[in-house]
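Trying the structure run again after the queue cleared.
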Amino acid sequence: MNSSNPLHIGEKIRQIRVAKGLSQENLAHASGKSKSLISRLERGESEFDDMTLAAIKEYLGIINAPLLEHELEIYKARLWSYNDLVHSKRHSEAEEMKDTMSIILDLPYERDFIIMYKMISARLLHYDDIAAIETYINEVEPLLDGACDDAVYLYRLAKGRFCDVTGDYKAALTHYLRALEYMDDMQKSYPILVYSVARNYSLYGRPILAKLYFERAKKEYTGDRTHEFMYAVDNAIGFCCAKLGELDRAHKLFESSLFQAKSVNDKRWTGLTLYNISLVYYQKKDYKTSLKYVEESLEYLVDEVNQYIEAIVAKARCHKKSRYYCRHTTRYLQRYDLWPSPERMIFWPQR
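Done. Tokens:
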């Protein structure tokens, strides 16, 4: 996007040609025109006719590239549609759209659109593909100086996600907050981003701020109240309440989440929420009730390896021989590096 100083189409063709390592003679041969005419076209001293432009675009491999202003407006709208597909986790549709949108990479002067495309594509990649995500981010960081607000916003989202996955929660929080400032300035709601801010406040040891942002995410969410996002929010607010000693409210939130999960037969979240309730009772030193809930949770967590092991350890803590079982299970966890995830350790004793 170069709205402040738009390039004429001849200059755009020149930059694309140079980026591809081609000469004016190459374009002249491909279009059947003279080199002197190609030179005048690139300088903006002559205008392209439709046939010449089509021949040059075909030769450069940019037939569907958005060169004209109205084409760029259409591309921008489609770029945000691509972002919406990634955001809503419609990955198969997003993958298809990614291929058609990649034509922007052939237009070196469209810096902002290139940044936006790459940062959306970085968020489409799976969490395990850290190297590819990092490559995308490293490619756009030198381009950020003077980039438009939309491009910087999408960079913040992608960089925040990268820092989140790599365990740099403080840096992730910084990027998410900057992205959220942009959304607030645009008066747009993005509850998943608010949730990410809250989650990283929790991981960074700021339960009061985490609770505030989790509650904001719940308030802004307008989708199906039985959606998995709502289970996560209710459980997260419950965690914060428990950290702050508000065990009764934590219990109430977990019970609400449990009702939602059971109503749609969501076994994973039913098991996780039962486990959370068991931890509340453990904090209250009601070990008998805690044991009851954790044993029930195990029925639902069979396919969730890490959570299943966490629940086994919780069961051991409640058992009369918990000291022996905890010591035995701790050695197993250390051996296979299966300690509970950081966001689930608020009830756990220090290692």
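The chain has three domains: 9-63, 68-188, 207-351. Worth checking whether this holds up in the mutant runs.
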